[in-house]
Records
---
Amino acid sequence: MNAIERGLASLLGPPRAQNTILASDLGLSGGSSPIRADAEAAMRLSTVNRCIEILSDSIAKMPFYVFDSRSRRRITDHPACELLSVRPNPWQTPFVAKKQLEVERINGNGIAWIRRDPGTMQALEYVPIPRGKYSVTLDSSGAVVYTLIHPYTGETIRCGRMDVLHGIAYSRNGYLGISYLERAAEVIRSSRAAQEYASSYYANGGQPSGILKTESDLGGNVEVRDAAGNAETISKKEAVRREWEKRHSGPQNAQRIAVLDMGLDYKPLSISNRDAQFVEQSDLSVQDLARFFGVPLYKLQAGKQSYSSNEQNAIEYVVGTLHPNTTLWEQEFTYKILPPQDVEKGLEIRGNMMAELRGDWKTRGEWYKAMREIGGFSVNDILALEDMPDVEGGDERYASLNYVPLRLWPQLALTRNGNGGA
């Protein structure tokens, strides 16, 4: 195994437990079967899984490009263009790298190591670092220091802030983010509890628990053997309980006829229809988790489904959730990927959020039409946003003559009346 393979093996290995949400951190410890609520367990909730997929896919599919804020034009021949649209590193596409960064940001901190040209300081690649493979601290001077596993050599290295892309979630200290899952711990705990309750309920065939009653004395112990022949001494009550559960618990044993001896009498505990239905609890959990992630309910196949409301919710998602996340990465990419001299010239890296609306032809059509009629977009500007080639004469811009400045109104009125020279 060469140095690069060793580095990749170290980089892609399992994260350390210190970066997971422990049950003790969430107040879930204690009891014979504590409810897991770490990142892995939380992802088993369909709502959490889908929210993370939606947020990360929104960033991953978004085109990022170099933009000249002075001339208001895209730059297509900048060295950073290859990182943004072709290959950020040898083994990842831009989609995969950005998705990994956003997933890690949702878990608190999206970290990527930057390799630069020693002469020009131009960024040559960036490599996302999984959680558990880095630490972030402040040194005595107040500078942020990153200690991470080098992706190629597997060695531990220390980096300054300019050599690391860092997307931060909500933070109390400004340099370390707090995971969405940690902030939603209480909701995740209740959702996991409902999920385990439902699983346990249906694992018992959807039958309520009950009481086995007998007039006989069940005191004392009895020796039982398992399938492997191992002996165990248990109480007679436990032996009866195990035998009953073996015969009548589980979906495969549902509705079986019970044959009782020893004067046993089975009395089921009553259960209401509300206890057997989890739709209401599930809806509440979906709504609570959707609020934490900022994802509209219609994207989670929940809530009221109507075209008009979903269209408005899509706009609110772009404005309220996606735009702030995009701005975070735009500023981080601009400051860390572009050389300082390019930033001073007015270059910056931007994300095109129109990609989020590519499926909404009606909204895009209305936007293009409005911008075309006020002279904001030319035909070629619109075609460029649709990744289509320019057309001859498409750079001309037009505007309606129905609206003119008030200072020109007298001249326009006289011209229309044929008295332009009066």
---
Amino acid sequence: MTEQEIKDFFSKDIFAAEVGVKIDSVEEGKSIGHLDITEKHLNAGGVCQGGAIFTLADTIMAVAANSVEIGCVSLQSNITFTSAGKLGSRLVCEAEVIAPHHKVPSLFAKIVDNDGRIIATSTAVCFKKQIKQ
């Protein structure tokens, strides 16, 4: 699939769009996206809510997982938060398929802020559904 076809497909992800996740680039098995932290992303402690960071990771991993053909869904995901995302920061997520199994590929993502600080890492195992043509 082309990068534009993937972006068009994921433009239907209303939740990710509402959160503010943007897809920057797509290659086979890889994708990069970002989230600009605004006041709507802050938790009660004044830092980026973990759910917003997870939405960024989950979305960009989904883009990487579906970069060859659409039909990959998440079976299991983990995230480890290592630093807080702060108001005004841009979080960039790079995701890659690290085990391209024909039915259950695995992915890894790293989220960094604009200072290069690692904010979180995430892993996922997906399932490739059969899509009726």
